[in-house]
Amino acid sequence: MRVPIPHSLPKEEVRHRLASRSGDIGNFVPGGIAQVTTAWPGEDCMTLNVKAMGQTVDGRVLIEEGQVVFEIDLPPALAFVEPMVAGAIRQQGQKLLT
Pfam family of this protein, just one (predicted)? Predict the structure, then answer.
């Protein structure tokens, strides 16, 4: 699943905001009991590993000019929640950038 979020910030500022607020991502998962691990394998890529309710979801946040793209690898068993997850990413992802 790919969820682009437009922005008008310099890439450096996007990196800074994502890095400084990545600890808040666990609070965006309903129930607030998610364990989130992030890493920066490249300057414009943050990886995510989210563990919640017995499920593990991996993803990436790609920083591009004019947009940030959240790529989430939903397991087939969670495909039915994709629209809800995409909506939450749009809403909460925007908060990470403001």
Answer: PHA_gran_rgn
